[in-house]
Amino acid sequence: MTTIVLADDHPLVRQGLRAVLEASDDLTVVGEAADGRQAVRLCLELTPDVVLMDLQMPELKGLDATAELASAGSATKVVVLTMFDDDDTVFAAVRAGAVGYLLKGADGADIVAAVRAAAAGQAVFGAALARRLQGWFGHGPSRPEQAFPTLSEREREILDGVAAGLSNPEIGARLFLSPKTVANNVSAILDKLHLASRAEAIVAARDAGLGG
Question: Considering the domain 144-207 in this protein, what is its CATH number?
Answer without folding.
Answer: 1.10.10.10
